[in-house]
Specification:
Arc Repressor Mutant, subunit A, Tetracycline Repressor, domain 2, 76% helix
Length: 193
Amino acid sequence: MAAGVLPNPSATRARILETATALFYERGVHAVGVNEIAAAAGASKLSLYRYFPSKAELVRAMLTEHSDRIHAWLARRTAAARGPERVLAVFDVLTEWFAQPGYHGCAIVNGVTDTRADPEVAAIARTHLHRYLDLLEELLADADVADPAALARQLLVLIEGASVVVTIEGTIDAGADARKAAAVLVRLASAGS
């Protein structure tokens, strides 16, 4: 930073969080230390701890922000579709994401796996899954399907299962397979309503 230029606290916090997000996602929570995050973010360790009093707090902030970003992105990317196609658009968007270089699975699932002993991270993960359920249930209700809550749970299993399979197998086929299964389930639920 140039002499006489005051740091921007919100920019520093955002830079630390963005750097931690990338490093945690690429290598896992336990493989990355706060010294590395601070250095990569161009911030001091003191600055990191000013915004995030512990590494655990940084992980929680990262997962919360990630969940917010994912759900806003899904809502934006599926807004133009209508009826049952809007439900299937969720699968299309996620399958695109699975195909991105550097996809290492769901950051929320990875985070909860890396920090199994942290009940606050588990709570963030539960909230994230409930947000998926809420979105799916809303889309299914708008599509006038029978029992949107039950079908939303089934579709969530397809989404999360596809993410895990894509991560392990390294191929995006599971995303397309999940979409095909979702289409069948949505069609059956639409016929039954």
